[in-house]
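Technical annex, item 7. During the second reporting period the consortium partners agreed on a shared format for inverse folding records so that results from different sites could be compared directly. Each record opens with the tokenized structure and is followed by the designed sequence. A conforming record, contributed by the partner at site C, is shown below for reference.
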């Protein structure tokens, strides 16, 4: 069993669509929770005008009946409200008369897929590339991730994110406990735990806006309640840290991924890096059985514990029962109002890069997308590990495995 998805759609096309496979039958689906995740992706201080145009909501086309999954592929759609202004430009059929404003792009943006994509696909209109390369595509990922989150929640797993750095300003300390991350209000401008740092970040965004510049930063995704044993040490492609790194790196503008304290650990001696192992008496499995069905966030693990978590919840490519912590490093957005130097692909003359409507920064939104990609990756590992055509069967397999871990 695999949890997998694919998306389709262009930034200014009619809609974004996604198909998810591998969701067990009988999983209750909360559509409002999916819409809430889509709303979260659109928030954040420094976002651009597109967020004011689109009101993203999900339409489930198949795979769900009377509020529960059928076990068949799930098809999702998010309509692009802005398409009304792009119908001729993004028409799927050939138009006899050239649109009055064809929006042809000839001046590639440094740091974007424009030029490399144009060369690869041999197109003279770089809009053919930028429409799909746009981060608008991530709305469909967030919808898929919202369903993955609902599957994980059935087994007591929760996922949150927070911004730990924007531009040169970082929250101090970087590491924050789960409870503090959960306490961030939903209307937080930058989804940052530290209010003082957040205000400084907002001031920096204002300065960048005046300068016509953009800003990057770092977000952290935390998953709590994971069982021991997701992933494997036996093959490079089965190592969960590798899969997670790929998933987060696939997000637009993410140029580095860190698990746990990986960056700082590279400069420390081993005695200050590895999480020592202790044995503690835990509550018997039978007394915790209700936790699985109620969606409790209790940590499901064996009686072996670690009092530090510098590894970020993964050892040897396998979850060890501690919180999973993974960070995404986002570069500044490639579309600048103060355009960078470029070249016209037809005339080869020096020119300024094209400008498409853009954000000043999108680090908080990238954190929401990071949650989605982590949720999808973890949901896939759960399906691999516990299988089952129905949620009930998957739950039985999960409970049996958890008992074996507690008895180890």
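Designed sequence (site C submission):
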């Amino acid at each position: 069993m695999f949890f997998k998805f694919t998306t389709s759609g262009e930034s200014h096309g009619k809609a974004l669509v996604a198909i998810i496979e591998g969701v067990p039958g009988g999983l209750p689906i909360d559509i409002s929770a999916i819409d809430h995740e889509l709303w979260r992706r659109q928030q954040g201080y420094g976002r651009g005008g597109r967020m004011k145009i689109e009101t993203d909501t999900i339409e489930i086309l198949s795979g769900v009946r009377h509020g529960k999954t059928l076990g068949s592929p799930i098809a999702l759609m998010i309509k692009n409200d802005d398409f009304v202004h792009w119908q001729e430009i993004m028409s799927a059929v050939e138009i006899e008369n050239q649109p009055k404003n064809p929006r042809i792009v000839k001046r590639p943006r440094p740091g974007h897929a424009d030029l490399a994509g144009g060369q690869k696909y041999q197109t003279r209109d770089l809009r053919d590339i930028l429409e799909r390369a746009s981060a608008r595509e991530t709305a469909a990922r967030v919808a898929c991730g919202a369903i993955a989150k609902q599957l994980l929640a059935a087994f007591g797993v929760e996922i949150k994110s927070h911004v730990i750095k924007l531009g040169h300003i970082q929250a101090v300390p970087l590491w924050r406990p789960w409870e503090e991350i959960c306490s961030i209000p939903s209307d937080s401008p930058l989804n940052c735990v530290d209010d003082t740092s957040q205000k400084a970040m907002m001031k920096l965004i204002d300065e960048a806006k005046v300068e016509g510049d953009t800003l990057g930063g770092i977000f952290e995704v935390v998953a709590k309640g994971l069982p021991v044993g997701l992933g494997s040490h036996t093959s490079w492609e089965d190592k969960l840290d590798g899969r997670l790194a790929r998933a987060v790196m696939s997000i637009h503008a993410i140029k580095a991924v860190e698990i746990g304290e990986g960056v700082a650990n590279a400069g420390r001696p081993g005695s200050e890096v590895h999480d020592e192992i202790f044995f503690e008496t835990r509550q018997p499995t039978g007394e915790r059985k209700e936790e699985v069905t109620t969606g409790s966030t209790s940590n499901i693990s064996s009686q072996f514990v670690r009092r530090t978590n510098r590894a970020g919840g993964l050892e040897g490519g396998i979850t060890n029962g501690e919180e999973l912590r993974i960070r995404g490093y986002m570069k500044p957005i490639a579309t600048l109002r103060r355009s960078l130097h470029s070249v016209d692909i037809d005339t080869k003359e020096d020119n300024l890069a094209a400008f498409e409507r853009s954000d000043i920064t999108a680090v908080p939104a990238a954190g929401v997308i990071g949650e989605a990609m982590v949720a999808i990756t973890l949901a896939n590992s759960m399906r691999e590990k516990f299988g089952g055509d129905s949620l009930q069967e998957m739950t039985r397999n999960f409970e049996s495995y958890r008992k074996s871990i507690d008895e180890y």
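Confidence is low (pLDDT under 50) at residues 285-298. The first helix runs from residue 31 to 42. All partners now use this format for quarterly exchanges.
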